[in-house]
Amino acid sequence: MLHKVVGIILLALVLKKINLAWGDIGFQKNGFVSGLLKGLLLGSVCFAVSFGLELVVLALQGNPAHLEIYISSFSLTGSQMKNTDFVFFLLCVLFNIVNV
């Protein structure tokens, strides 16, 4: 996540240095929400198709799979846990935002 923020800052500095605006390289103020929703739709469709194909291939190989959503944790001793409580998802998002 930090490398993305550094990349955006670096891009902003380069744009300022060469006297270009965000609009000059394709960013638009109008239609931001529409573009965001289209991107989320495209990502969701691509995920659904690729995951569906993977499920079919695994089923044909005799290894049925399923989707799990969890936060994994581990320790230096090798123990692993799957945390599925909502609070773990909130903590994960919080720590990733604070880590920026």
Provide an overview of this structure.
With 100 residues, the chain is mainly alpha-helical. Among the domains are: 38-65; 68-100, no CATH class. It is built from three helices and two strands, in the order H-H-E-E-H. A two-stranded antiparallel ribbon has the order 1-2. Strand 1 and strand 2 (80-83) form a beta hairpin. The longest helix has 29 residues, at 32-60. The protein is extended, with a radius of gyration of 20 Å. The N and C termini lie close together (6 Å). The model has no long low-confidence stretch (mean pLDDT 85).
Helix content: 55-70%
Largest sheet: 2 strands, antiparallel
Strand order of the largest sheet: 1-2
Overall shape: it is extended
Residue-averaged pLDDT: 85
Radius of gyration: 20 Å
Hey, roughly how much beta strand do the residues contain? 5-15%
The strand count comes to: 2
Distance between the amino and carboxyl termini: 6 Å
Number of helices: 3
Class based on secondary structure composition and strand pairing: mainly alpha
The unreliable regions are none
Sequence of secondary-structure elements: HHEEH
Summarize the structure.
With 100 residues, this protein is mainly α. It contains three helices and two strands, in the order ααββα.
List key phrases describing it:
8% strand, 100 residues, two-stranded antiparallel ribbon
Topology:
Layout: H1 2-17, H2 32-60, E1 71-74, E2 80-83, H3 86-98
